[in-house]
Structure formats: structure tokens, C-alpha cells
Amino acid sequence: MLDGAEDPGQSLVMSTHGRGTLPVWLVGLAALGSVGLSGLSTGGCADKGAPEYVADQFVDAYFRRMDQQAARQFTALGATEMLDKELDLVRSVRAQGYTPDEAAAQVVCRRTARGSRGERVRFDYEITIVHDESEEHRAADVELAKIQTTWKVVRVEVKPRA
Q1: Do residues 31 and 99 make contact, with C-beta atoms less than 8 angstroms apart?
Q2: Among residues 160, 154, 120, which one has the least CA distance to residue 140?
Q3: Distance (Å, whole) CA 146 – CA 162
Q4: How crowded is the C-beta side of 160, counted as CA atoms within 13 Å?
Q5: What mean pLDDT do residues 143-153 have?
Q6: Is 80 exposed, middle or buried (0-12, 13-18, 19+ CB in 10 A)?
Q7: How far is CA 76 from CA 9, 101, 117, 153, 156, in A?
Q8: Under 8 Å between Cβ of 143 and 154
Q9: Structural domains of the chain sorted by starting position, each given as residue range(s) with its CATH number in brackets
Q10: CA pair distance 114, 143, nearest whole angstrom
Q11: How far apart are CA 77 and CA 59, in angstroms?
């Protein structure tokens, strides 16, 4: 969750939560149990080289499954740096046996729009996080660039959904 409004590569607001500094929204997600993904076309007929497919796979791994390592394969540049920092932060927790499956939350992700910025492609996602009897809503802006011949996520911005 890199904030493009500031310096790409800089994380959004971070919160200290016992075992180190994690993104505020990530701390909330880590406290929940696992559920679903909605509206993402990840079926068997998808063009695995298309930017939509890469973005959807990243969003599924990063937001829904809370698996930074799995999400990392879809990234480059600042997004890879962001995930490397997060992996460092959760390394000690994971070493104690806390797995991405346990960190996964009841999260629904839906791709809502596609845009472009120069040669980059960006997708907006609605992220809904269900807590016991309440819901939290986030908006994610996922930007991809073609690195050599492969689309990669290079910037991610997460903010409260208006």
C-alpha cells in the first residue's frame, strides 16, 4: 500500500501493534477469520498475461489471503519494496507458526474501474472487511507497468472508501 499522493515507495499510515509496525488496515484484517473474493475474473479461461489477471491475482493474495510472499510474485519496483518491508515485519510472527491462512480475514474484493496513466494501467478495487457485526470499506488503487514483457504491480494505494 504505497501512497502515490506522496513519494511512491512510502507506506501509508503505519500503526504499532505489539509485534512491530504494520499498516493500520492490515492490523485490522489480521484479527479476523477467512472468506471470499467477489467480482474478480480469475477463471481458467483468463489471459494470464493480461494486466487484469495480474492485478486480480495480486489483490487476491495480498488483501484476501494476507499472503505477502504469494503477492510478491506479481510485483516490481516500489510494490516489491513495500512487500519486502512487510515480510520483514511479519517474519518473527510467522516464525512462531502464525501463517497467512490464520491472518486471512473475511474480505471481499471487487474490481470496479480501469484507467491508464501514460504507459501504466491502473485498476480500482472495493475492499470490504467484515468484523463481527460491522463492515469496514477501503478503496485500493493498483497500478501496473509492463516490465520487459510482463505486467507487474508497481504501486498500490489503500484509503478509506468514500
Answers
A1: no
A2: 160
A3: 30
A4: 6
A5: 95
A6: middle
A7: 11, 24, 17, 6, 11
A8: yes
A9: 14-160 (3.10.450.50)
A10: 10
A11: 17
pTM for this predicted structure: 0.69
Give the integer Cα–Cα distance in Å for 41 and 50.
11
pLDDT of residue 154: 96
Q: How many residues does the chain have?
A: 162
Out of 6-10, 72-76, 132-136, 152-156, least confident range: 6-10
Q: Is the dihedral of CA 65, 26, 139, 72 positive or negative?
A: negative
Residues 6+ away with beta carbon under 8 Å from 122: 114, 115, 116, 141, 142, 143, 144
In the block, cell 463481527 appears at: 132
All three cell numbers of 69, joined, read: 510472499
d(CA 129, CA 108): 7
Q: How far is CA 156 from CA 5, 31, 40, in A?
A: 11, 22, 17
What's the distance, CA 152 to chain centroid? Answer: 13
What is the residue whose three cell numbers read 487476491? 60
